[in-house]
Specification:
Elements lengths: L2 E3 L8 H9 L5 E3 L3 E2 L7 H7 L15 E6 L3 H13 L5 E5 L4 H5 L10 H14 L6 E6 L8 H10 L4 E5 L17 H4 L6 E4 L5 H11 L3 E4 L1 H5 L3 H10 L8 H14 L10 H10 L4 H10 L5 H16 L9
Parallel strand pairs: 1-2, 1-9, 2-4, 3-4, 4-5, 5-6, 6-7, 7-8, 8-9
Helix pairs in contact: 3-5, 5-6, 8-10, 11-14, 12-13, 13-14
Amino acid sequence: MRLILAPMQGVVDKEMRDILTDLGAFDRCVTEFVRVTDQKFPERVFFRNCPELHNGGFTRAGTPVFIQLLGGKPTWMAANAAQAALLGAPGIDLNFGCPAKIVNRNDGGSVLLKEPKRLSTIVAAVRDSVDPAIPVTAKIRLGFNDSSLLEDIANSIVEAGANELCIHARTRLDGYKPPAHWHQLKPLLAKVSIPIIANGEIWTWQDGRQAMVDSGCKDLMLGRGALACPDLARKIKSSYQGHAVKALSWQEVLVLVQRHFESRDRWNLRYVGNRTKQWLSFLRLHYPGAEMLFQEIKRLTKEHEIRIAIDSHLWLESKRPALKGVC
């Protein structure tokens, strides 16, 4: 099995990718999307989105990072894919799943699921623009309003030359409302010739196992669940291999929060602390200590105030017995 870290816009940045892949078990990461309209971006855009290009396209732990492109114009998608590949991207991922209304209104993301032939044209253009040795993957949902076109969508992407297909098992209309309909992926496995990766609503290692059973897929993409439970990938892979792994305590996770703040979030002078607050909003789903810290810093805007709050919580945690997480 393989586990892939999802490209969550606004939170899974280079520093977060380093933190989560350092914990082990992830086989690939995907960047936040590069929004392609009608231009070929200069090198600096790709290095800003994927600093790992300075390291051959790999995280600190050696996990490959695919660059994700989002857009509806084949020519410009191809031009930017070629640019990313030239800079050393290990792979190109195409976002046909983003449900954001502003993205859909501007001819990007899941709105393209209404037109399987357009998907084919975009994928084929990108595939032709990069070396055959560089994987081209696509991420979709079950459909826009329903899943009636799912087989057509999958076939169009496969026939255009994609190497893998990740499916978020909800429609655009579903948004992120539970449940994820993993079972709808299983019929595709016998009809397509490339690996399918299941995604959506995987919060625990038990969810991961159930997603594999229901979908028939051996590979999973983890997003919000990995933010809520940083060692989720390690737990899923360990359970699949038949052995247990010690859960991270809140004190151990808090060290990671501090590291992320110090390496990334404190330097964003206009929005200092925003990404740390976003991460805590996920972590509090599993760790009561994260809820306490979130409530303390959610209205703070100064770097030193947030840093002091994190340091204080870390000091207090060091004085009490470590409690395991529950994820």
